[in-house]
Write a structure and sequence with these properties.
This protein is an alpha/beta fold and 600 residues long. The chain folds into three domains: 186 residues, Thiamin diphosphate (ThDP)-binding fold, Pyr/PP domains (Rossmann fold); 166 residues, TPP-binding domain (Rossmann fold); 218 residues, Thiamin diphosphate (ThDP)-binding fold, Pyr/PP domains (Rossmann fold, 3-Layer(aba) Sandwich), CATH 3.40.50.970. It contains 24 helices and 22 strands. Strand 19 and strand 20 form a beta hairpin. Helix 1 packs across helix 2. The longest helix is centred in the middle third of the chain and has 22 residues.
Length: 600
């Protein structure tokens, strides 16, 4: 029996157990849309209002449940609306399968509507190559089974990441023997590389002899779902544990061994533990600039003399930014499992509960929390951001999911909100993408419908994808957006003041002739048909968020927050290399103290 190329493709997605596909129709994907209509009882279409948001939704879905979704677009502009979403997923190692409509194979090069062809025929897909792990340019429907199998293999194994398959319009409609359909799960490995045995044994010996060991929990631990193994290793060795932003929530943040985070916008306790470690075990960590204080010696790390064991699935990350004592190419879960077995065989468990090292961790953490407690407790109006974060954490259950994108909101939530269950804090990391949180939260809610999901965003962040309120209302996806409205790009304004001694707000705030110009976001939400409320007093914050959650509807709680420099964001806990012109060098030195007090 013959079926269309599009039908064959949809059959393979259904066989993967994919419950949703996210996309927008166009003339370049109509056969695919019709094939999805025929299987609508097995794979549900979610139609966002922008293709960037489609990729963010698939991204959030994977982070919440560990299963990839496919995204589809039409030819041309629809496909080129996706790179921001793809780059976010690519940098954070998130699998997404992108299916883009393309020029008919027999019309390539004539310049059909939305074709890019001046350098090469039907050349648009090459614009996506820097932000995908691998791509397939299809010429015939017979190639689809192999391409789909390889795409799932590429995006879900090794270091994960997004992939793209082009779907020429004639290929979607082309007749093909249905017996060509493949089970893509039969074309990928099913093991996890655990690393060289000798290297694991050497790492276990080095850790067992350490007096001040620290484990750095990165995104690889989160993606590998290796939290239990990390906990077992830390408790056996009595290791301090710190995490990157992508590793946050993989280790319970109320644990006595947890020292929070290291880096520029992190915590003083985390930086203290990492720079004074004798042995560091980094698992699934990229050592990016914000997590290392731009590699300034003695700020976050002292490597050497600290000795580094680096475990990563990507060999290119090992030794890239710091020299390693032992480098192990392995999956985080498999390597930690092997490492736990090795240290248990080599040495007895340490009695860490009352040790001087654990007491030091506790004292450092207590001092860090005390540093922001006054603002978190302040009941001034308008409320400070720390107060809102404290109230939000208190009313949310431990299994609730909170998502952040970029800016002051993300930095301060990272510093002050504790998460005790894995995959409950999700963040746009290395690409620092604004507009990510809300559509990603919708994807997370689809993945985990029975827990509260909150997109914690600034107004600039939310306004970038606010159109997705219409999608949430259409499909009744009851995500709550808590919008902390500071009426501009506050994080950049703060950095501008610190680096350039410039109190003019030039080019950073939403204002006209020095007066704020900002929409009433709660009213906008109500216009979309969502629940919307604006609050301006601290006493109103918790009741408003609670009512939004209990409404069972897509909801927006807009909080007008304190905008004063110095209290508008979290703390700068270390150095960040922000180049400035020579004539500002003296002013930068004058403001050196501010760098340790105000978020960069």
């Amino acid at each position: 029996m013959e079926i269309s190329g599009a039908q064959l493709l949809v059959d393979m997605l259904v066989s993967e157990g994919m419950p949703y596909i996210v996309g927008i129709p166009g003339h370049g994907n109509l056969p695919l849309v019709d094939a999805l209509r025929q299987r609508r009882d097995q794979i549900r279409v979610i139609m966002p209002r922008h293709e960037q948001a489609a990729v963010h939704m698939a991204d959030g879905y994977y982070r919440a449940c560990g299963k990839p979704l496919a995204v589809y677009t039409s030819i041309g502009a629809g496909a080129l609306n996706t790179p921001i979403g793809l780059a976010t997923a690519y940098v954070d190692s998130i699998p997404v399968l992108l299916l883009i409509g393309e020029t008919h194979t027999y019309m390539r090069g004539v310049g059909v509507l939305q074709e890019i062809e001046r350098q090469r025929w039907s050349d648009l897909y090459r614009a996506l190559e820097p932000v995908v792990k691998r791509s397939w340019h299809i010429d015939h429907a017979r190639q689809l089974p192999r391409a789909v199998s390889q795409a799932f293999n590429a995006m879900c194994t090794g270091r994960p990441g997004p992939t793209v398959i082009t779907l020429p319009m004639d290929v979607q409609a082309q007749a093909v023997d249905e017996r060509l359909k493949a089970n893509s799960q039969e074309h990928r490995p099913h093991d996890r590389p655990s690393g060289d045995t000798a290297a694991i044994q050497a790492a276990a010996q080095l850790l067992a002899g350490a007096q001040r060991p620290v484990i750095i929990c990165g995104g690889g631990v989160t993606l590998s779902r290796a939290g239990a193994e990390l906990l077992a290793l830390a408790e056996h060795l009595g290791c301090a544990v710190v995490s990157t932003m992508q590793g946050k929530s993989a280790f319970p943040e109320d644990h006595p061994l947890y020292a929070w985070h290291m880096g520029t916008n992190a915590t003083t306790c985390g930086n203290h533990m990492t720079r004074n470690a004798d042995v560091l075990l980094a698992v699934g960590v990229r050592f990016a600039d914000k997590a290392t204080c731009s590699y300034k010696p003695g700020e976050t790390f002292s490597i050497p003399p600290s000795r580094l064991i680096h475990i990563d699935i990507d060999p290119n990350e090992i030794g890239k930014n710091y020299p390693v004592e032992i480098g192990i190419v392995a999956d985080a879960k498999a390597a930690l499992t092997a490492l736990v077995e090795a240290v248990q065989a080599q040495s007895p468990a340490r009695d860490w509960a009352q040790s001087a090292y654990t007491q030091e961790i506790g004292a450092q953490v207590a001092a860090w929390k005390a540093s922001y407690n006054q603002q978190a407790q302040a009941e001034d109006a308008p409320p400070m951001m720390g107060y809102v974060l404290k109230e939000l954490r208190a009313l949310l259950p431990q299994d609730a999911i909170v998502l952040t994108s970029s800016g002051n909101v993300q930095a301060q939530a990272f510093q002050e909100m504790a998460f005790t269950q894995p995959h409950t804090y999700l963040a746009a990391g290395g690409f620092s993408t604004m507009g990510w949180s809300y559509p990603a939260a919708m994807g997370a809610k689809l993945a985990r419908p029975n827990v509260p999901v909150v997109a914690l965003v600034g107004d600039g962040d939310f306004l970038m994808t606010i159109q997705e309120l219409a999608t949430a209302v259409q499909y009744n996806i009851p995500v709550v957006a808590v919008v902390l409205n500071n009426q501009g790009w506050q994080a950049i304004r703060d950095l501008q003041w610190i680096a350039f001694d410039d109190e003019s707000n030039y080019g950073t705030m939403f204002e006209h002739t020095d007066a704020p110009v900002s929409p009433n976001i709660a009213e906008v939400a109500r216009g979309f048909g969502a629940y919307g409320v604006r609050v301006e007093k601290p006493s109103e914050v918790a009741p408003a968020i609670q009512q939004a959650i209990e409404s069972g509807r897509p909801a927006v709680v807009e909080v007008m927050i304190d905008m004063n420099f110095g209290t508008s964001g979290g703390q700068g806990t270390g150095w960040w290399d922000v180049p400035i012109p020579p004539n500002f060098a003296d002013k930068r030195s004058v403001h050196a103290q501010a760098l340790t007090e105000v978020k960069l």
